[in-house]
Structure to design on (446 residues):
């Protein structure tokens, strides 16, 4: 294996999506990346014909260049904007209930088991390696209700080198007796989690204020969460307009407003650091409010098919100015793979088109899905100046893709670069991801 410990150079093909409409192929380019200690940033990305000049400018020798093997290419790391860490152990199962019954029968009992630190360590260690192996370099996590296991998750993410935003879940009503906390305990534990996470020696792992959603959070808890997020300049995450049965319960609990958007806004939770999952039943007026507040949506198409019965209209969200990223929503979404999330996003976009009378649709749905998984997620988290594409000055969060690895993709001499890229998106899996970098640091090599 080549050494990537200091400043290094990669030569080969780079594919990224700088804008929603654009897919850019940079064939035979050289990319200079600073050492992790110097920020792991892209210092230069130019055609290989300028290699001698580039190396001289950075005082590098030809021996520092790693030639990406023929047939492979680089793409930005994937950004998962919605993942429930304590649900990972039952991902791939339990898709037979509507949302509220699913939470009551499967989710709350399974999440409650994570008060056992040994169990939490085993499950969280596996999920972090699984996500890195699948090319997820950044993830926005819900932990469980328990402080110490959430702190453990943050520590494991720090050790593994993944870029992560982690939230200790808060709930003070409408849950199982064994899986609920008082308002005061939720707030004190959240503050303790924020402080301990910020005490880690890392610029990659960050705390997130995480009231689960309106049905399990009193107005007082929501308002206090908004105050905490502002006080500590934290991201905040929750679920919004997730399903028809969710909306019905919110209307029952809060007939004075009937919708969770108003409750979140009153609580000061709709900010430019907020990421709200789903949003499938949001009206145009509600989307306009999210846009005005700078609040992003985590689009979780796979779980929407199981629990919402309504696909999110990503095009409408974007037209109204709402930032949208892509999420796997494990375990509501049964797969931790962002490639599967992209495929589901394409199908969801097609479904929206089929339901629309004006036949308006995403012009390039496949490209749009790849953008959502990279730059879209970066924008949702406010990281668009740091990650999501291969622009000079950004931090190097990247994947080396080998479409020929394993037996899952057949390639042919007639395949163009676009053909190869499309095959990876539509047919690829973790076998095709041969190396993973986060902030210029190599975190996985196969």
């Amino acid at each position: 294996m080549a050494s990537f410990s200091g400043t290094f150079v990669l030569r080969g093909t780079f594919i990224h999506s700088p804008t929603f409409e654009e897919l850019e192929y940079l064939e035979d380019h050289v990319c200079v990346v600073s050492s992790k200690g110097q920020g792991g940033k892209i210092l230069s990305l130019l055609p290989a014909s300028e290699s001698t000049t580039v190396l001289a400018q950075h005082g590098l020798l030809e021996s520092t260049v790693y030639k990406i093997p023929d047939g492979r290419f680089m793409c930005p790391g994937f950004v998962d904007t919605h993942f429930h860490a304590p649900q990972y152990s039952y991902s791939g199962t339990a898709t037979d209930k509507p949302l509220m019954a699913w939470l009551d029968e499967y989710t709350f009992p399974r999440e409650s088991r994570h008060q056992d630190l040994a169990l939490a360590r085993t499950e969280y260690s596996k999920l972090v390696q699984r996500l890195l192996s699948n090319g997820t370099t950044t993830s926005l996590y819900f932990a469980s209700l328990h402080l110490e296991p959430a702190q453990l998750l943050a520590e494991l993410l720090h050790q593994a080198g993944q870029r992560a935003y982690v939230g200790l879940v808060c709930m003070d009503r409408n849950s199982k007796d064994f899986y609920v906390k008082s308002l005061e305990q939720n707030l004190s534990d959240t503050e303790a989690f924020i402080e301990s996470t910020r005490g880690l020696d890392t610029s990659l792992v960050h705390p997130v204020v995480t009231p689960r959603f309106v049905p399990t959070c009193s107005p007082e808890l929501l308002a206090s969460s908004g105050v905490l997020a502002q006080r500590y300049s934290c991201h905040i995450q929750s679920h919004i307009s997730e399903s028809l049965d969710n909306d019905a319960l919110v209307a029952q609990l809060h007939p004075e407003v009937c919708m969770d958007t108003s409750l979140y806004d009153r609580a000061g939770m709709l900010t430019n650091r907020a990421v709200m999952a789903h949003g499938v039943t949001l009206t145009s007026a509600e989307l306009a409010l999210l846009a005005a507040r700078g609040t992003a949506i985590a689009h979780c198409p796979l779980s929407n098919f199981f629990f919402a019965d309504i696909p999110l209209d990503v095009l409408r969200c974007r037209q109204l100015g709402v930032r949208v990223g892509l999420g796997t929503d494990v375990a509501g979404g049964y797969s931790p793979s962002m490639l599967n999330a992209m495929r589901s996003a394409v199908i969801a976009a097609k479904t929206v088109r089929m339901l629309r009378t004006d036949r308006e649709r995403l012009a390039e749905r496949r490209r749009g899905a790849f953008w959502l998984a990279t730059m879209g997620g970066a924008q949702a988290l406010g990281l668009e100046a740091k990650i999501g594409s291969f622009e000079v000055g950004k931090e190097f969060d990247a994947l080396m893709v080998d479409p020929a690895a394993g037996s899952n993709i057949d390639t042919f001499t007639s395949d163009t670069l676009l053909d190869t890229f499309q095959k990876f998106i539509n047919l690829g899996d973790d076998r095709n991801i041969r190396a993973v970098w986060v902030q210029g640091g190599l975190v996985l090599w196969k």
